[in-house]
TrEMBL record:
UniProt-recorded name of the protein: Cof-type HAD-IIB family hydrolase
InterPro entries, alphabetized: Cof, HAD-like_sf, HAD-SF_hydro_IIB, HAD_sf
An MF annotation (GO) of this entry: hydrolase activity
A Pfam entry, by short name: Hydrolase_3
Keywords assigned by UniProt, alphabetized: Hydrolase
PROSITE patterns in UniProt: COF_1, COF_2
Entries under SUPFAM superfamilies matching the protein: HAD-like (SSF56784)
Gene3D superfamilies: 3.30.1240.10, HAD superfamily/HAD-like
């Protein structure tokens, strides 16, 4: 590394999160040390803001959060920007998801994620045991937890502000067919999609991604895009990794991600890869 970054952007799942959906105390410690040196550290995640607190250690702090693949940004608990899916698009997509029997979670701002009660039988059926071999354990555990404790099963959609849709399918064939349906729908109503595994796809506002979220966060802090570093592992990190000055892929990242970055960590997310990389490269 030829420079000491002024701002670092870290993905969560597959990056600072282990496959058991936990952030280690070592990762917290290295982030604390970086911030004490005056380096800004941000999370840039596909997760909604309310999903973060339950997977980080007590006392975990960063300078800001870019959530839902760039749909929203927070400093502390205060929103500094938020984009919203339209109510019309939400209703159209839920109807199409029902026709295709695709597992979905809708994330309204400020309340729990929502799935409609009429769709509960087929949604729960997608999470039946045993876990399909190709589904990552972290994604499977998250879906199990969502079904058990985190989804509000509603009679109808409420409100008008929504940060994203998350979709999942047990088989690659099913989710790929759904991605095709979404691509067709984009010709009628513009929106963007993002994937972080072979079994999911997420829907956000058109032309929104982690890179646009990073730019908005940099603007908020009056920081330049120069001397920025990001670490990620999957396809939804590509806009972020292409945007920053210096990009790093996790050892456990997809080959597609590794091909476009400046460096790769020596260790995986289950081996504190981010901790070891930052400790060595930033010379703490």
């Amino acid at each position: 590394m030829h420079f000491k970054p002024k701002a670092i952007f870290l993905d969560m799942d597959g990056t600072i999160l282990t496959h058991q959906n936990l952030v280690s105390i070592h990762t917290k410690q290295v982030i604390d040390e970086l911030r004490e040196q005056g380096i800004f550290v941000f999370l840039a995640t596909g997760r909604a803001f309310d999903e973060i607190e339950g997977v980080v250690p007590e006392g975990f702090k960063v300078d800001g959060y870019i959530t839902s693949n760039g749909m929203a940004g927070y400093v502390g608990r205060e929103a500094v920007f938020q984009h919203s899916l339209s109510r019309k698009l939400v209703e159209i997509i839920i109807e199409k998801a029902r026709e295709n029997k695709v597992y979905y979670e809708l994330f309204p701002y400020g309340t729990n994620r929502v799935t409609l009660k009429q769709d509960q039988p087929y949604v729960e059926n997608e999470i039946r045991d045993p876990k399909p071999e190709t589904v990552g354990i972290n994604e499977w555990l998250s879906r199990k937890q969502a079904i058990k404790d985190e989804i509000d099963w509603k009679e109808e959609v409420e409100g008008t502000r929504f940060s994203k849709f998350y979709f999942f399918a047990r088989t690659k064939e099913h989710i790929n067919q759904w991605k095709h349906e979404l691509d067709v729908l984009k010709h009628e109503i513009p929106f963007s999609t993002s994937i972080s595994s072979d079994h999911n796809v997420e829907v956000m506002v058109a032309n929104v991604n982690k890179a646009t979220g990073i730019q908005q966060m940099l603007n908020h802090f009056e920081l330049s895009a120069e001397e920025t570093l990001a670490i990620g592992d999957s396809d939804n990190d590509l806009p972020m990794l292409e945007f920053v000055s210096y990009s790093v892929a996790m050892k456990n990242a997809s080959d597609e991600v590794k091909e476009v970055v400046d460096d790769v960590t020596q260790f995986t997310c289950d081996e504190d890869g981010v901790y070891h990389y930052l400790k060595e490269k930033i010379r703490l």
